[in-house]
Amino acid sequence: MMTTPRPLDLRLEQNANDISSIYELLSGVDGRFDQIDARLDAHDARFDRIDARLDAHDARFDRIDARLDAHDARFDQIDARLDAHDARFDQIDARLDGIDTRLDRIDSRLDAHDARFDSVDAALGELSAQVGEILTILTADRT
Q: The whole model's pTM is what?
């Protein structure tokens, strides 16, 4: 004779089936977590490689920055030297302007002297002509 299962037995069997199904789902989820974990490990390794490359770039940029700082310091020194040269050229230019002014005054004085010498030369030319006439007259009178 067959006995009908009691509700408690049915419930226990249902719970056992449910628990079995939950374990199957958990094993599927566990497999999925393993896949995700493997992908995360791959991403982590990739990020480590990227981080290493970025560290190398950062070190290179630090070296470039140091070189640029050295160039900047040299340009500052050159700029200071050029400023000193510029100041010296300004002094020389001022001195040459003074010399140019003095030479202009001397030129104008020499022009005045030249005019005076021209008038003296003309006077001496007239005087020489007159002396020549006097000598001609004096030598003619002796004869």
A: 0.48
DSSP 31-45: HHHHHHHHHHHHHHH
| Positive or negative: CA dihedral 48, 50, 53, 54 | negative
DSSP 8: H
Side chain identity at 135, as an amino acid letter? L
> What's the chain's length in residues?
143
Contacts of 5 (CB under 8 A, 6+ apart): 13
Report residue 27 as tokens: 């094993």
Rounded Cα–Cα distance for residues 133 and 125 (Å): 12
Where helices occur in the chain by DSSP H, the ranges are 7-142
Residue 14: closest CA among 5, 3, 25, 1: 5
Residue matched to tokens 């010296």:
88
| 59-109 residue pLDDT tens | 999 999 999 999 999 999 999 999 999 999 999 999 999 999 999 999 999
Question: Rounded to a whole number, what is the largest CA-CA distance in the chain?
Answer: 202
- Would the CA dihedral through 44, 50, 53, 54 be positive or negative? negative
